[in-house]
Amino acid sequence: MKAYTILLTFLVLLNSCTDENDDYSYGGTKLKIETLTIPHRWELSKTKEVKTIRNQVDYYDLGLDGELDFQQGQVLLVNMGEKTDDGDSIKSVKVFDINSSTVVAYIKYQTPGKGCKVGEVITHPFKLIWIPSRKNVLVSEKTVKKEC
Hints:
Residues about 1-20 have low confidence and may be disordered. The chain is built from 1 helix and 9 strands. It has a 5-stranded mixed β-sheet, with no helix packed on it. The protein has a 4-stranded antiparallel β-sheet with strand order 3-8-5-4. Strand 6 and strand 7 (about 100-110) form a beta hairpin. The chain has one domain. The chain is mainly β.
């Protein structure tokens, strides 16, 4: 990871909850983010990763194409890694501008709860999120179990 990029993963909660119980404790102004689409098969890491991509060269190095204006923002890669069923997902990503140097990305993962029927298939749940800010990204992660 580059020295100029600060990416802290500081909170992983494993519990059942609903959107009403989300903790956006840092407050701030919610940013309008955009989920990027990938036009072709893309090779993902088999392990979980969350990282920022702050320039075009790093974006290309991931095997992605297309021009982005990295003077105006950055990309957040959220990858759950390889999963053996179709029950895991990235339920939501919300980003808040909290101060002059930091934005917080709240990531909510969803996994199947007891009794949930899932298909046995290899999946790679991921999202590429365009964040319209060059500020450092602080990450807060939460995992919820789907009620079945």
